[in-house]
Amino acid sequence: MKLAKRHNRRGFLRGRPIRRAGGIVAALITGAFTLGVAEAPTADAAVQDVINTFKNQATGLCMGAYPGNGTGSDYIGVGTGGCGDGVMAYQWNVHQWADGTRELKNTSYGLCLDDSNAYGLRMFPCNATPFQSWYVRRWNDGTIELKNQATGRCLDDSAAYHLRTFPCNATPYQSWY
Hints:
single chain; mainly beta; 2 domains; 1 helix; 10% helix; disordered N terminus; Ricin_B_lectin; carbohydrate binding
């Protein structure tokens, strides 16, 4: 089980020098005087999308999309497999929304990872809804947890149950890197 980071009374991580924050503030002030007036970021300022793969800590398998049976978006499934095995599409475009959640869009199929109580985990045309928005929690070991904004469930992979969403429990089955 992963442990939460410990903070001191002032909210700083233990062991992190507080003077680092002072140095950053001093650099910003110096930069503002050097450049003139510093402009605040606008609401339109976008975070650059990145391409990622997601490998499960417990199973060592990567999340990917694959051709299934059906038509339209029902034709594309989502699961895990041997990373780079040529069977699945393992690359995801990660877009960060203004609220800090992420959209995971498969680069090969152009569909988004979607979770709902009605349909479960699936690939679906991207629609910028909470069903396709994922909170990212970073653990001390460098792995991440992906929690769906709409359902509150975490992305989970195991040999017994395969890729699914499940109530968050901070286990390696829900840790990704």
